[in-house]
Write a structure and sequence with these properties.
Blueprint lengths: L12 E3 L9 H10 L2 E5 L5 H12 L6 E5 L8 H10 L1 H7 L14 H10 L4 E5 L5 H9 L3 E6 L2 H10 L3 E5 L5 E2 L14 H9 L6 E4 L5 H9 L4 E4 L13 H8 L6 E4 L7 E4 L2 H6 L9 H16 L21 H8 L5
Parallel strand pairs: 1-2, 1-9, 2-3, 3-4, 4-5, 5-6, 6-8, 8-9
Antiparallel strand pairs: 7-11, 10-11
Helix pairs in contact: 1-13, 8-9
């Protein structure tokens, strides 16, 4: 992996993995065709679906990556979960859905997904939510896979470097979707991604990909100037022609109905940034930190909200630069974002 650009790509731009639909194989392929590096999102997918997408990507003959959620088993308060389920009953009834209360363990098929990556290695793997075992990192590297770890603090970066990862994805707090924090109970501060990139660059010479709050080429330039070797783009690709995001989601970003984003645990029990809507307003202060139990609890409601187009009750993940999202081919979006780079 180059210390100047990820995989020596033409553009120092990366498609952030967006679980739940936006990161299609078509989007990742379009990023590669434009000269960037794309990441598939394995989160919430079955191992079978993940294997199909990896097989498709291998056929392109270009580098690509895949992102996995590392199980982060945090203790949670079952009484608080029960109380939250009761609080959501009226929301569910309004949608004709149920509140699914299933507090048991859920590791997102971790062992099966890791087995796929060890049996048939891919060019790059990134991890989020926690740091995998050092032995797994070494095993993946031994198979020729570049291992990247998503970090949000200096302490996380130090631990990842000590574990032997090849590169860091440094996520600033203005990123859309789930915070990659390893400590989901902590408060997420608000500051530019460039600040944390600069602080972590002072620790290490390994490649750094900065991400979060990108609203145009100026922010890309700032993150690169702070010491990043690449910038990952998420929200600004949600409306790309190759995105798998639903029309309801894509339209919400530019409808004018939503004027700000909020970090909330209301939908999943883990801090995540999305468009500030009624569901967050009503329940954001009461949601327990209990991922993935809350994620499973609200899943039927969110599914019904997608079907009915009820944006007041949808988890509309978005970074602070959401208003700049364009409906255009991926290549056009990426080249525009790179337009102010040397």
């Amino acid at each position: 992996m180059s210390s100047s650009r990820p995989f020596d790509t033409e553009l120092p731009l990366v498609a952030a993995p967006m679980a739940g639909g936006p990161s299609t194989t078509a989007l990742v392929q379009a990023v590669a065709g434009a000269g960037g590096l794309g990441f598939l999102a394995a989160g919430y997918k079955t191992p079978e679906r993940m294997a199909e997408e990896l097989d498709t990507a291998r056929g392109w003959g270009v580098p690509f990556g895949v992102n996995l959620f590392v199980p982060n088993d945090q203790p949670y308060d079952e009484q608080a979960l029960n109380a939250y389920a009761a609080e959501l009953a009226d929301e569910a009834a309004a949608l004709g859905a149920e509140v699914r209360f299933a507090p048991g363990a859920d590791d997102d098929h971790w062992a099966d997904k890791i087995a796929l990556l060890l049996d048939a290695p891919v060019p790059a793997v990134s991890f989020s939510f926690a740091l995998p075992d050092r032995s797994l990192i070494a095993e993946l590297k031994g198979r020729g896979t570049v291992v990247l770890q998503t970090v949000t603090t200096l302490d996380e970066a130090r631990a990842a470097l000590d574990a032997g990862v090849d590169a860091l994805v440094v996520q600033g707090p203005r990123a859309g979707g789930h915070s990659a924090t390893w400590t989901p109970t902590r408060a997420i501060e608000d500051f530019p991604t460039a600040r944390i990139v600069a602080r972590i660059r002072a620790l290490t010479s390994v490649p750094i990909i900065g991400t979060g709050g990108v609203d145009g080429p100026g922010t890309v330039r700032e993150i690169m100037a702070a010491g990043a070797d690449g910038v990952a783009i998420g929200t600004l690709l949600v409306r790309a022609e190759e995105s798998g995001a639903s029309p309801v989601y894509q339209d919400a970003l530019v409808s004018g109905e939503f004027t700000r984003t909020t970090i909330t645990r209301a939908f999943t029990g883990r801090p995540a940034r999305g468009l500030h809507n009624g569901f967050i307003e009503r329940h954001g202060e009461h949601a327990p930190t209990a991922y993935p139990a809350v994620h499973r609890m609200t899943s039927p409601m969110r599914t019904r909200a997608w079907i009915t187009g009820d944006t007041d009750r949808l988890s509309l993940w978005a970074g602070t630069g959401f208003a700049s999202a364009q409906a255009a081919p991926t290549a056009q979006i990426l080249h525009g974002l790179a337009s102010q780079l040397p």
